[in-house]
Amino acid sequence: MIHITDHPWLQNANKAPNVNLSETVRARLQQFSVMNKFKKKALRVIAEHLSVEEIADIKEMFENMDINKKGQINFDELKYGLRKLGHQVADSDVKALLEAVSYC
Q1: pTM for the whole structure
Q2: pLDDT tens readout for residues 52-72
Q3: Number of Cα atoms under 13 Å in the Cβ half of residue 94
């Protein structure tokens, strides 16, 4: 069994140069952080206006798609679940959906 501290990334940590981030990278990270917070707040506002029935429907749909019952939906589960609901979605669109919700 390999110990985590033997991983090449950690072994090379002391050898890696300490490079400052450019202003462009910093600005993009800050913008990403702000947009992520905005998305979370927007989703919260939307969720607060859903009826009990709509919430129950969404929860049931999620539970039906969560085949392995881990509380998260992976690519294959989402793809299968959407097809089961009659939506033929391209793999690239399924990936985009997952990426969109994982940043929220």
Answers
A1: 0.53
A2: 999 899 899 999 999 999 999
A3: 16
